[in-house]
Amino acid sequence: MTATPELKTYALAARAASRALSSASPKAKNTALLAMAAKLETEQEALYAANRQDLEAAQAAGLSAAKLDRLRLNEKVLHDLLAGLRQVAEMPDPIGEIEGLQIRPNGLQVGRMRVPLGVIGFIYESRPNATVEASALSLKAGNAILLRGGKEAWHSNNALVGLLQEALLEAGLPKEAIQLVPTTDRSAILEMCHLGGLLDLIIPRGGKELIELVQREARMPVLAHAEGVNHLFVDQSADLEMAVQIALNGKIQRPSTCNSLEKVLVHQAIAPVFLPRLAQAMQQAGVELRGDERTCALISAKPATAQDWQTEYLDLILTVKVVDSLEEALEHIARYGSRHTEAICTQHHAHAMRFLREVDASLVLVNASPRFNDGFQLGLGAEIGISTSKLHAYGPMGVKELTTTKFVALGQGQVRE
Fold it and tell me: pLDDT tens digits for 173-209?
């Protein structure tokens, strides 16, 4: 299947815009970002109205509570978007920086200059706030972006992109730097994947099926934002009250997100004391508990199936397992983790350091909630996604992760002998 002329036209316009952005001044980009924040704040009632259209249609279509939560624009979401836009504007502009400059024996100065990637294709579902975050980061990094949102957020995304394009024009930048694909037909995903030579990178952000489709079909590099099968290991030395609060925050603060807690592993030495406290807190919060045989012997929980250990629920469900040691916890995470977010609660320094070194995940935490795996929370201003692959980014992708480097050489007439 090849791309339609219309979608190619959008991609060609994005390519032209990316050339203009690559030479845009930091002042122009920051002016656009601040104008975006001002417009979203001024037009918030219109944005809420557009979002209500999407929510009503989604409810009528029977979308799950988790997807409705991701779809909803409210005061808290908008507040975070405005703060993120302003934070990105305040960040140093990386474009044009020369890193690692060194002088070769012949006097040639060699370094790496940070440059934009070019044109990014972004395929995502449900979350209209991702429209703003992805657009802001791409702009700051000097990239154009082609957005393909889900049909459930069509009205919200159109309203948002319209305001973002107005801000670009006010700053003297091409509005084609941020474009929304004009259809939510699933065939557009394949068409974008086949735009090799026009899109420099494609980022799928959604379910496992979407990500596997893009990885299979893409004719350009893919940065995958995969599911979050995230664990908390409660070590023998853990502060038990701290562990309960971390687990509670990780599970209930916003269960529909990929950085929420899905599994708790508990050291057998503290399980008889800790598990009743955990169960009481979770059950009061409306969380359904599932557990292995030893867990079910200590608290009221449904017996866990083999599928439970590898499932990302995105709901008020938590699976618990009693383990004999740190080694068993590490083995379990290596087998079932999705390389997204993993945490340990411990007062044992050596155990904390070993967990940090040996666990393979985009963010590993000690005595903190997995909900911190978020670009804004980690100081990036926003994120375009959380990469669970290792090339060329691992973890939340902010401005710098949407750039690359090229070699530059400064000479005074040197020739190779």
Answer: 999 999 999 988 889 999 999 999 999 999 998 888 8
Residue 236: both structure tokens together: 């023998």
Strands (E) in 93-252, as ranges, are: 98-103, 109-116, 119-124, 144-148, 178-180, 201-205, 231-234
Across the strands, what pairs with 203?
122
Phi, psi of 199 (to 5 degrees): -100, 135
CA angle 277, 371, 148 (to 5 degrees): 140
Q: Are 173 and 206 in contact (CB under 8 A)?
A: no
Whether 131 contacts 165, CB under 8 Å: no
Q: What is the mean pLDDT of residues 22-35?
A: 97
Q: Are 256 and 66 in contact, with CB atoms under 8 Å apart?
A: yes
Mean pLDDT over 145-163 rounds to 96
- In this prediction, residue 2 carries a pLDDT of 47
Query: Can you tell me the distance from the alpha carbon of 160 to that of 162, in angstroms, rounded to the nearest whole number?
Result: 5
Q: How far apart are CA 365 and CA 298, in angstroms?
A: 27
The single-letter DSSP state of residue 251 is H
CA distance 350 to 352: 5
Structure tokens at 60: 């009528």
Give the whole-angstrom CA distance, residue 124 versus residue 59.
19
Please name the residue that has the structure tokens 């916890």: 329
Question: 60-69, 185-194, 298-307 — which one is most confidently predicted on average?
Answer: 298-307
Distance in angstroms (rounded) separating the CA atoms of residues 361 and 403: 22
Cα(246)–Cα(344) distance, rounded to whole angstroms?
Answer: 10
Whether the CB-CB separation of 307 and 253 falls below 8 Å is answered with no
- Return mean pLDDT, the chain: 95
In this predicted structure, which of 292-296, 368-372, 389-393, 404-408 has the lowest mean pLDDT? 389-393
pLDDT exceeds cutoff 80 at 4: no
For the stretch 68-90, pLDDT in tens is 988 999 999 999 999 999 999 99
What residues have CB less than 8 Å from 380, skipping those under 6 apart? Answer: 396, 397, 398, 399
Do 231 and 265 touch, CB atoms closer than 8 A?
A: yes
pTM here? 0.87
Helices (H), ranges, 26-74: 26-42, 44-60, 65-71
Residue type, 81: L
In sequence order, what are the beta bridge partners of 345? Answer: 234
- Of 204, 197, 211, 200, nearest in space to 3 by CA: 197
